[in-house]
Write a sequence for this structure.
């Protein structure tokens, strides 16, 4: 039911170091920390200048990513309990940043999406954010009818947390909203809902 | 080209600085001209006796003025008659035609701030940009460098309008732009626009990349005027004709003189509209454009006929 080939569906090519950047700001959640650690192992010599990591420590029962990040040659690791608090901290870091700062995002699609959204709000071209997906594929979904957001959606069809409509979760993605689009699935015959399966694990 | 050309009359010719004239065109039929965005250009078609000259010029603004367009023209020595014609023979009351404006150097309005850098006559599209940014209230600063104080067209006008946002430098004096410092001091979310001599554009872009600016935030106006060279023959495979390209004309100009109408847009090697397949060439292609990739230039299977030439006797094009 998910339509393939939707152009707005984000792609995450993987982290690579920008050898010219003067400041590197990494935004990561959960297993996204491992992507940062792997990058330093692979390309550490290309990472010159200051490094700041904003990490949402959300990986349940995971290795101690926070101290492993602090062991990297970085200036500062901001370790935050949730994605929301990490994004708030990222606002503080990027608000005073200058050109020459490279933004990296790794982890869940939600973490990456919110980082790209923030970069864009601060005037950066969204394509300048270097991204790598790790961990859950759960989606942040915007209801196209009431505009409300439903977080951590893992099923093809979800009940909108705001207006209660049954939404088909599409690949259509809004960078500005950092959300996939959910469209009423039973608009023609109310209650006629296809089988619900967990497809975004 | 998009749409038919627009007949206009020269309403005003004004000498604004050494070797620089500002020209105002108004529509012959009195109907409003198309609106344009900052960075847009128009191709002006002028007739000098039997010769037709077509040159692209940036529109300076003011934006939103549909009663006329203004351009500035620098008199150059190696001109193919374009700037020379404008300076010597284009008087008030003359009739020319202009193309619909098109824009290859637009502002990225998602930016938080815009850094405008102009050298010499490169100020013309940048003036329209300053006007647009002033109108919409987005922060900007303009760094404008000229050879001598008197060659600095528009410095006073700009300072009067935008005050401390304008920084003027004279390249002959010690007050040169400290680019490295300037580029390292810009807030995140700044976009850069540069227009001026090729060397200046290359310098600014290189320093910006070294300062860690991403490619998506760098914008340059890369108009090149066609340069002369040795004459050669162009064989047109489809129309089975051979046209001689003289020392002082481009392939595009030679084809137009021969009555052909190959597609073009910017006439400055920037837009890609006149990309033409090369079927054979008995020498080397001299690529002067900013459009083809280095790899494509190396392969030699394409040529931008508005600015590039060949070093050889004969080139066969898929036209």
């Amino acid at each position: 039911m998910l339509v393939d080939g939707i152009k707005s569906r984000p792609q995450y090519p993987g982290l690579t170091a920008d050898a010219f950047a003067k400041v590197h700001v990494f935004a990561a959640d959960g297993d996204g920390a491992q992507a940062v650690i792997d990058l330093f192992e692979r390309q550490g010599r290309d990472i010159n200048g200051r490094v700041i990591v904003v990490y949402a420590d959300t990986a349940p029962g995971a290795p101690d990513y926070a101290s492993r990040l602090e062991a990297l040659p970085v200036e500062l690791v901001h370790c935050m309990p949730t994605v929301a608090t990490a994004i708030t901290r990222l606002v503080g870091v990027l608000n005073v940043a200058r050109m020459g700062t490279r933004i990296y995002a790794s982890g869940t699609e939600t973490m990456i999406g919110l980082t790209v959204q923030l970069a864009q709000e601060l005037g950066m071209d969204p394509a300048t954010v270097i991204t790598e997906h790790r961990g859950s594929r759960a989606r942040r979904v915007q209801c196209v009818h009431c505009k409300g957001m439903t977080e951590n959606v893992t099923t093809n069809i979800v009940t909108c947390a705001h207006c209660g409509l049954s939404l088909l979760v599409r690949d259509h993605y809004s960078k500005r909203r950092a959300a996939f689009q959910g469209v009423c699935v039973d608009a023609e015959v109310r209650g006629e809902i296809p089988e619900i399966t967990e497809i975004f694990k | 080209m998009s749409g038919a050309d627009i007949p206009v009359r020269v309403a005003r010719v004004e000498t604004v600085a050494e070797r620089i004239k500002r020209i105002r065109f108004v529509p012959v039929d009195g109907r409003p001209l198309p609106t344009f965005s900052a960075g847009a250009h128009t191709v002006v078609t002028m007739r000098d006796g039997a010769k037709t000259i077509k040159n692209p010029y940036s529109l300076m603004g003011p934006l939103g003025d549909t009663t006329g367009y203004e351009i500035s023209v620098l008199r150059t020595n190696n001109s193919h008659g374009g700037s020379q014609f404008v300076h010597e023979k284009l008087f008030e009351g003359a009739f020319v035609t202009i193309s619909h404006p098109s824009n290859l150097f637009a502002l990225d309005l998602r930016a938080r701030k815009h850094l405008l850098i102009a050298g010499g006559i490169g100020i013309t599209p940048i003036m329209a940009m300053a006007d647009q940014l002033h109108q919409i209230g987005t922060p900007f600063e303009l760094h404008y460098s000229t050879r001598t104080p008197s060659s600095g067209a528009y410095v006073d006008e700009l300072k009067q309008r935008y005050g401390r946002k304008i920084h003027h430098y004279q390249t002959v004096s010690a007050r040169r732009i400290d680019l490295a410092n300037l580029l390292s001091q810009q807030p995140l979310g700044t976009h850069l626009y540069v227009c001026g001599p090729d060397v200046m554009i290359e310098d600014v872009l290189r320093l910006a990349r070294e300062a860690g600016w991403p490619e998506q935030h760098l914008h340059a106006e890369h108009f090149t005027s066609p340069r002369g060279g040795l004459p050669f023959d162009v064989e047109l495979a489809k129309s089975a004709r051979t046209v001689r390209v003289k020392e002082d004309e481009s392939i595009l100009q030679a084809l137009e003189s021969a009555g052909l109408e190959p597609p073009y847009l910017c006439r400055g090697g920037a837009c890609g509209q006149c990309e033409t397949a090369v079927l054979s060439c008995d020498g080397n292609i001299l690529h002067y454009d900013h459009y083809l990739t280095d790899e494509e230039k190396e392969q030699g299977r394409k040529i931008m006929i508005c600015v590039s030439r060949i070093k050889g006797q004969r080139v066969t094009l898929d036209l």
Notes: DSSP finds seven helices and 19 strands in chain B. Residues 41 and 58 of chain B are 4 Å apart (CA to CA).
